[in-house]
Structure prediction request, 569 residues.
Amino acid sequence: MRMFIRACAFGHLLAARRATVPADGPGLVDLRPASGSLDVNVLKPDPFLTMSEPTSSSALPLVAFDLIGVLAEPSWRELDGAPDRDRWHRLRVGAIDEDDFWDPATAAAYRACLRLRTDRLALVSRLRARGHRIALATNFARAWLPLVRDQIGDSGLVDHWLCSGELGVAKPDPRFWAHLRGLASDVVVIDDQRGNIDAARAAGLIGVWALPGADLEARLDAALLTAGASGPQP
Amino acid sequence: MRGPVDYAPLLAELGLTAADASHVLAAAAGSHARLAELRRALVGAVPPGCAAFALGSLGRHESSALSDLDLAVVYRRGAIAPVDADGAREALAAALRARGLDVPDKTFHSAVVLDDLLGDIGGRDDSNDHLTYRALLLTEGAWLANAGDAAAIVEQVFGAYTAGAITRGRYLTSLSNDLHRYYRTICVDYRFKVENAGKHWAIRYFKLRHSRKLWHLANLAVFCRAALLPDEARDGWLAEQLPRPPLLRIADALRPLDGLPLCAGLVTAYDAFLAALAEPDTRRALDLLAYDVRDASPVYRRLRAGAERFDEAATAVVGHLWQRSPDHLVRYGLL
Prediction:
């Protein structure tokens, strides 16, 4: 059975590489409504995404991606001229509403700026094709989540959505990791904050630091090998 | 840097007050506020596959209201037509100028293809401009539009060095050599601009003696520190450090080497330099200053004395690196 899963995953890996790796390198998916001239092709249902779903297996490690700094940009702080971290700490666990966080114009600008990285979405697609379940594990405002969820949720690319604004607890709090631990016995966490990686490891998860400039896929593959249940490696 | 640069912990460690570094602090807060305002204003200003950056003092979070804005637009080949990328750059520059910003059309006058920046590093067609883009994107590139594309582009620039299977060097000296090369290039470029191109000399001279030198010192310090880290930790630490403002980079390099107190002299000397550049009268005086009569200028004498204090502080840092990371400093910084 395990051999069969691996064989299927390998076939899908090859298909994924053919189908989803952008020929011209990393790019972005625009999260704004598709009414303009923006490229949202990656978000449209495609045969690859449909194909990748059946291979998802609970026998393989769950891969949990951070959002800002890993799958998407920018951080709210980069648009706020005088960011207030205390208010952010309340917003990110749902203790205040966005109206109490910043002004409507900045809120609108942030929504317009927020975009997913197509290079990273391609990586997620390849993992799905190998049979891994995917979680999005993010410290993020509840009010911003629909923007992301509407776009990649429909594609079936993400199996589990763990948003601090919905959970009421944020990374690196151990209670956040407990939610992930409840989803799978083996969980690999990808995050751009080293503090979160340390905390995830302390909670018994496998951490992969998404440091800039490094080959994230290679580091992730190495971590999946460590987890001992990876599909075939590229 | 996601948010405003926070120098407060460093000042506390150094026993300095906010008044000792008021211009460093003002530049950091003002730069972040300017960047945030511009990002909000420039939403959708460049098409997907293309990113806009502020390089120079704004990218280092050291700008004042008088600073110009080095606008760089970078795109991936095939993602957008060159004419559209250039058009986006022109429209962006016009929008920034309409907001009162000085956007020069010099090195960064047109959009550049990322593949061209990375495809010939060290080769015959690797121009000074390409070197400039790489060095500044890695060390002082703040995104203005399309944050995700910008992040991917900077990662690819760093990755161009780390991925060199044969040439990267254990200490990533392929990158440190390129940063050294850029520093030497701008030092020689000063000669051309002043002697041949008829540009004003004074502000350029003092930038070389302060901000450019600090940038170079920060790179030296960071690579000397990185050489002492375990191999598996080195690239990540470098990637984390290089985009940080030079004073913080130097502090982070010296702290574990028991040299942090040496940063105090750098901070105060640099603060005086930023104070001078934030004064319109000082800039005007420097713009009008003839080289032959420079010693008669109080502004020149004040800035020169500041540059000498800065040199003393920088020399003390290099002396400490000589003691604590001599192998790397000599083998890779000098030889």
Remarks:
- The CA atoms of residues 41 and 50 of chain B lie 17 Å apart.
- The mean pLDDT of chain B is 96.
